[in-house]
Amino acid sequence: MNILFATSEVFPYAKTGGLGDVCGALPEQFAKAGHQVKVFLPKYQAAADYFNQMQQLNVTQTIKINGSTYTLNCFSIRHKKLPLEYIFIANDSLFDRPELYMDRKTGLDFEDNDDRFIFFNQAVLVASKQISFQPNIAHVHDWQAALIPAYLKLNYRNDSYYKNCKSVLTIHNLAFHGMFPNNRFTKLGLASNLFYPTSPFEFYGKLNFLKAAIAYADKITTVSETYAKEIQTEEFGCGLDGVLRNRTDDITGILNGVDYSVWSPTRDTEIAHTFRIQNLSGKKMNKIELLNYAGLPIRDKTPLIGIISRLSDQKGFDLIEEISDKLFRLNIQLIVLGTGDKKYHELFTALENKYPDKCKAFLTFDNSLAHKIEAGADMFLMPSKYEPCGLNQIYSLKYGTIPIVRKVGGLADSVIPYDRQSETGTGFLFDSYDSNELLQTIQTAVELYQTKRKWTKLMKSAMSSDFSWNKSAEKYLHLFESLVSKQYEKTV
Ligand code: ADP
Questions:
Q1: Domain range list for the chain
Q2: What angle do CA 387, 121, 29 make, to 5 degrees?
Q3: CATH class held by domain 281-465
């Protein structure tokens, strides 16, 4: 198959969270299976280290968005071994900025995010045609690429080039819709009668990119089986649960995998001491180095808890705030790495000041430190309100860093609850979004940590878990093949 993959983040060129990791790894799996894959992403400043490897493609076009005219240029990096090419959609006035989505100074979304991603969506289809890449499947990710299914169905319906192209939307986080004032609908360049109350583009009077993709994509996937069910309920549906229920037969949950060449203690190039199940001594040395780096005292019998996260309401930090004094009465140390909402920066700064020998907060984005925390911490805390998949708890398992998580979404699908009787499981889960349940769960983990034999057994069981991409990639490919073969059935 020819697979067009459109996303706003691809590791290592651009990443703010799990979307970047997934879109960095998944296309390689498709290409390894022998498919021709072109990954389209904006050419942000974030990819500056790679600009000198890029070849400019022979694509020339201007794209009009309302009164403004934007020039499209395309640059490419080809994978050395696989039938895989990264195509960077360039327009410096739109993408050559220090941040991907928001103004660093104000912390607010860029005012022209609609123009930026309308341009991106249109440009992907223009460029793919100009480079003569005729896709069987357009696999689009989140709101930033969500207009492609609509454009295929509306603008290209009678275009022989794209007529047979099927689209699959993957929702990595339903909370982000790509919502704009309704008067901006005209920018999409579609017939004005397509915007009316309850139309695919309309959401409580506003323009909503993700809703359009939910309506127009041929299939919808999301990043865990549990989240696929959750998003069809009022509690987790972010107002789109009704629209999703209308498409229930077309929704599949496929758990994200992990690129173990990047995230595993045996191969990690960011950590000082690699280690393996048979010999965990490297983990202890990583912990000592991490504590030294954080300026925390080394305490032999004290478990070190790690947090690596966007600091947003989704991630459950208000629960930590509620129990913080009780939490730090426990025999623990905590290292936090994250950026995001000001109130959580303040929370972790206050905790660090109050408990200087127990808590250290790195309020920044630091990929290398993220690896060092995975490798050096004993436990990983992720008490999310909701969690589409979550990657850090899955990385943690491989590093023997025992996850303490809430039983929602992908957290429920990736961590097996520890059972005291049988001494089986891979981590600790709690059910309700309740700070006391969280505290009790942390307490249970901290107690078990004191029994070295049991803790080591738990670490080894976590480290044996396998979330490599191949199984999940196969599920995507089956889905794509079912759409493509349906098309052939129709035409025969
Ligand atoms: P989400 O996609 O909701 O942000 P995930 O757990 O799925 O959460 O993925 C988060 C990814 O982003 C992981 O690779 C994690 O290591 C990384 N990450 C998050 N915050 C930071 C940070 N402050 N510094 C470095 N990496 C981070």
A1: 2-257+470-486, 281-465
A2: 55
A3: alpha beta
Question: Ligand 1 pocket: which of 368, 389, 391 to mutate (most atoms <8 Å of CB)?
Answer: 391
| pLDDT for 60 beyond 50 | yes
Whether the CB of 345 sits within 6 Å of ligand 1: no
Mutate to test the pocket of ligand 1, among 309, 382, 415 (most ligand atoms within 8 A of CB): 309
- Among protein residues, the one with the nearest Cα to ligand 1's atom 20 is 309
CATH assignment of 2-257+470-486, among 3.20.20.70, 3.30.1330.80, 3.40.50.2000, 3.30.450.20: 3.40.50.2000
Distance CA 266, CA 243 (A): 44
Label residue 111 exposed, middle or buried (CB < 10 Å: 0-12, 13-18, 19+). exposed
Percentages helix, strand, coil for the chain (3-state, rounded to 5) are 40, 20, 35
Q: Verify whether ligand 1 is closer than 6 Å to residue 391 (CB atom).
A: yes
DSSP 293: H
pTM above 0.90, yes or no: yes
Partners of residue 275 on adjacent β-strands: none
**275 φ, ψ to 5°?**
-155, 165
Q: Are 421 and 238 in contact (CB under 8 A)?
A: no
> Does ligand 1 have an atom closer than 6 angstroms to the CB of 6?
no
pLDDT tens track for 3-42 = 999 999 999 999 999 999 999 999 999 999 999 999 999 9
Name the pLDDT band for 486 (thresholds 50, 70, 90): confident
Q: Do 2-257+470-486 and 281-465 have matching folds?
A: yes
Q: Go through 46-64 and write b for each residue having 16 or more CB atoms within 10 A of its CB, e for each that does not.
A: bbeeeeeebeebebeeebe
Ligand 1 pocket, residue 392 CB under 6 Å: yes
Exposed, middle or buried, 105 (CB in 10 Å: 0-12/13-18/19+)? exposed
Record the tokens describing residue 109, joined without a space: 């979304």
- Locus of tokens 């911490």: 377
Query: Which runs of consecutive H residues, i.e. helices, occur in 40-133?
Result: 92-95, 113-130
Atom of ligand 1 nearest to the CA of 310: 20
- Residue 118 pLDDT: 98
